Every structure is written in structure tokens, then in C-alpha cells.
Amino acid sequence: MKVDAIIVGAGFAGIYMLHRLKEKGLSVKLIEMGKDVGGVWYWNRYPGVRCDVESLEYQFDFSEELRREWRWPERYSRGQVIQRYLSFVTDRLNLRSSIAFETRVEAAAYDDETKRWTVKTDKGGSFDTQFLILATGPLTTPSVPKFAGMDEFKGHIYHTARWPEHTVDFSGRNVAVIGTGSSGIQAIPVIAQEAKTLTVFQRTPHYSMPVTNRVLSDEEIAQSLDSYEEDRKIRRAVPGGMKMPLPQKGVFDVTPEERESEFQRRWTMGGFPFLTAFNDVMMNPEANEEAAKFVRKRIRDKVKDPKIANILIPTDYPLGTKRPVLDTNYYETFNEPHVKLVDARANPIECFNAQGIVAGGKTYPVDDIVLATGFDAVTGAVLNIDITGRDSLRLRDVWTAGPANFLGIGIAGFPNLFLVDGPCSPSALSNVPIAVQQQGDWIVDCIAYLHENDIAAIDADEEAQDEWVKHVAELANRTLYPRANSWYLGANIPGKPRVFMLYTGGLIRYRERCDAVAAAGYAGFRLESIKEPVKELN
Ligand code: NA7
User: Fold this and answer.
1) Among the atoms of ligand 1, which is closest to the Cα of residue 349?
2) Domain containing 83: what range?
């Protein structure tokens, strides 16, 4: 089948790309491995799954009608509600017929003669397309640790990112959860309410802040609709792409009393505003430590047994450098008599056996095991596709030392391939629905420019790419982010190169750079027509 563009992935990024490209009159097919749209919100169905960005922010804002037609029930949405929202958007924009569901893209190869891609799927389908747009998402490929004896375990093993569609009933069952990132911390209090016993295996303690979720009132919804235009502007004038109280001062610009009071105020608000109480928390280790000390105190307040509190309290990496978690009753759950915490750092998991999990020489018998062990993040889903560019260059070989691209959008040697919400872009460090609209608009404008100027292919220049990768690393190194073993760095996957994979400079700076490149005739990209050899425009 011959099309103008193939999009891979039906999350926020893919749906927006599909809408914009169809609007421009291109023939487009979106290929999605799930049975429905939603991306991470389709697959993450585990108990307690919730977004850590507020509902009124975490949605598209390109259409006032869409906003008026959808009613968010809660301040922080359940994953299933966001999936339903994306399904609503898909139908409302009449996009469903352009999506091939339950289909996985296995390979994509570029032909330098025709300047087109051949995309192959697991259903035997083959597409001939000019543009290949990878909207595969940063949190798509589950990380499933290979514990010895997994096959011997007699009970059920679930992964939070591949939760069954049917309801899983844990009543009367002895359950183990491995992992205490967002997925584990959200699931643990909910599973604990149902299970007979719950044993949590924690390798690294996380910093978790109260989400303070609540039902959204009609007044709040009406107010957000009244300020639709103004809020759109605000989102584009702040680095994170979401309306949130911004800091004016550094931690040490105020007295200790003022600091404590501001931390407390933000803590009570709930959610990420705590992290932005002061402007140097993510940059200055001493400032960060003040915020971390506040959180540690709150954990001690919540957990009755000081020995358990000690295991739950992070001390060896800065607050916020592993993605902080927003929870409801996480720490309090460890006060329940049927909930046990195993320090899997002091007593590493050795293997599974027929009865359960063996850690520190002891068997913990359980009926069910929940792996909340995260993702091969940011690059996993891209590299799962066997992508071959110019001169038989394989992306898997090119990215052995970490992801490289220009602007987080184009990869040198892989013409007409665009990444959305991918490595070296703001992605999960910003408000994703807003970030993907900016990147999507840039890509649509770029494709229009190519058409208008009779250009058959666009390819990132290697020098521009090297400079961008260096810039992304330099920005990250100015922050505290590289100081933790996080998925941002690939540190959670054995053998993965340790490279900070996201752009920490914020959406404003990122947009300015993207716009400057476009305004200069796509400087930093090589533009090629079918007949002529490479034309250097920069
Ligand atoms: P995360 O945040 O990567 O958390 C995974 C957790 O699983 C984390 O506590 C890991 O410990 C733990 N883990 C992973 N492998 C093992 C093994 N082999 N043994 C013991 N423990 C292990 O993934 P999530 O799904 O919770 O969240 C991902 C993002 O989704 C989140 O940041 C939000 O953006 C939404 P570790 O810390 O590596 O020691």
C-alpha cells in the first residue's frame, strides 16, 4: 500500500500527528499494537494507575470544542479515563478508520533511490511511504527482569505495563509486588485493600509526595473553559508546558521558617508544585537536600515503625532525579499488619521458586507476583523496530552509545524519519500533550515546506546532530538529574548505555531552537530533491 506517511503509535503524539497530517490532505496510516488508542494509557491498566499531571493540563489544547465536549471527573485522572479521552478525540476527529490496530511494525527500510520507506508489519503488511513518523512513546516497552526460576512459580505473574483486560481479583490472596517506582507506589495501596497479605520488595526507596486528588467541581471546569485562550498562552510561556505555581526565589534566599512554611504550603497543595517551591531545587545539591529533608520528615510522620520508615526513606540520591511519585496513602499502607516490606537492596532477590520469591536466603511464599519493574524507556520502542537507513545503516548499530538525533526530531542517515516525543526532546520532562503539539506542528510545517519546494527528502546533518547531542548532555549535566540511577539515564536496564536521554532545557527554549532552524530554511538538515544531488541550504 502506498501512502504519504506512516505513523507508529496511537498515544497523544500519534493521534495529533494523524489529525494534523490528514487535515493537510496527506494519505496517512497509523499503526498501533494495542486494540485501541491510548498508548501508555491503553497498556497501563494496573490498579491505582493515575497520571501525575493535573487533568485540566494533561490534554490537548488545540481545539476549544474538544475541551468543551470532554468533562474530566477528577483533578488527577485515572489511566482508564485518559484512554477514554483519547478514544473520544479519535472518534470526534474521525481518525479511527486510518488506524490499523493490533499490528506491530517490525521493520522499516529506506531506499535512497526513491527517497521512500518500506514499512513491514507482523501481519504481513507492507507500506511504501515517503515519511515515517515514530510516535512510539517513552514508556512503552516493559522491562521484565529475568529472575531465575520464573517458570517454576505456580501462581500468576503480572506486569503493571501489561495488565490483563479482565479484572484481577486479589481477595484472599497473598501477593508480592516487586518495584516501588510510580507504578508500584500507585498499585500497592490499592492491592493492599484487597489482598490477604502483601509483600513489597523495594530495591531503591523513592521520594513520593501526596497527590491530593479530588473530584473537579462544575465551577472549576467552567472557570477553566472561560480562561481557555489565556491558559493556552500561559502553557507556552512556561518551561514545563503546564499551569503551575512557579518559584521566584532560591531555597537560601529565605529564612528557614519561610522555607519550611513554603514547603508545607506546596506539600498541602499536592503534586509536583512541591518540586517547584524554589527555583534551585533541581540545580543546587544543598537546596535539594533541604527539600529532601522535608520529605523524609513527612515519611517519618506517616510510618509508625521507625525501622520500616528507615527502609522507605531515600538518602543516597537527590529528590526529583528519579521521577518523583505522587501517591495516595502509600506510606500509610506500611502501617497495616498484613503488609510487609522487604529491603531488596540489603536482601537482593535471588530467584523465584514454585512457592514464591527467594531473597536474602529466605523464601516468601505468595500466590501472585506483580512486577512493577518499569520500562526500557525512551529508546526501547524505537529500537524494537529494525530500522535501516541510508547505505544499509541500522539504527540499532548507530545508537549503541545512546540515542543521537538533531532537535529530538531527525536522525542523520535516516531521511524522512521524524521522531515525536522521543529521545533528546523535552518529552516526559514536560507536559506531553502540549509538547507533542509543538513538535507535531513543526513536523507538519516541515513536510509542507518540502512539498512546496519540491524536496523529496530531509536528513539531519551529522555535525548539527553531534552539536545537539552535546547540548542535551551539557544541559543535563548542569542539573542534578544525572545523580540518580533512573530510567531517564537508562540506568534501570542492564547493559543500556548510561546517557541522559531527555532535553532538560524546557519547552520555551526548545521551541525557540526548533523555530530558528525552520526559519533558516531547516538549517542543520540536508534537503534533497529526487533528481539533483544533495542541496545544502544551511
Ligand atoms: P520505574 O520508575 O522504573 O520503577 C521500577 C521499579 O522497579 C523501581 O523501584 C526499580 O528499582 C524496581 N526494579 C526494577 N528491576 C528490579 C529488579 N530486578 N529487582 C528489584 N527491583 C527492581 O518504573 P514505573 O513503571 O514505576 O514508572 C515509570 C514511569 O511511569 C514513572 O517514572 C512515571 O513517569 C510514569 P530501582 O529503583 O531500579 O532500584
Assistant:
1) 19
2) 2-141+376-529
Query: 139 falls in which pLDDT band (50, 70, 90)?
Result: very high
Q: How far is the CA of 437 from the centre of ligand 1 (A)?
A: 28
Amino acid identity at 277: A
**Ligand 1 atom 28: residue of nearest CA:** 374
Mean pLDDT across 162-184 = 97
Q: Is residue 57 part of a domain?
A: yes
- Would the pLDDT of 534 be above 70? no
Rounded-to-integer distance, Cα 323 and Cα 314, Å:
13
pTM of the model: 0.96
Residue 326 shares a structural domain with residue 177: yes
290 and 390 co-located in one domain: no
d(CA 517, CA 87): 34
Give, in order, the Cα–Cα distances in Å from 157 to each of 35, 144, 256.
22, 11, 48
Q: How far away, in angstroms, is 19 Cα from ligand 1 center? A: 33
* Whether residue 170 sits in one domain with residue 130: no
Residue 531 has pLDDT above 60, yes or no: no
**Do residues 367 and 382 share a domain?**
no
- In angstroms, rounded to a whole number, what is the distance separating the alpha carbons of residues 3 and 385? 19
Answer yes or no: do 168 and 125 share one domain.
no
CB-based contact 250:279 (threshold 8 Å): yes
* Ligand 1 pocket residues where CB is under 6 Å: 139, 145, 160, 178-184, 201, 203-204, 323, 344, 349, 372-375, 428, 487, 492
> Rounded to the nearest whole angstrom, what is the distance from the C-alpha of residue 149 to the centroid of ligand 1?
21
The pLDDT tens digits of the residues spanning 400-417 come to 999 999 999 999 999 999
For residue 374, the CA-to-ligand 1 centroid distance in Å is 4
CA-nearest residue, atom 35 of ligand 1: 182
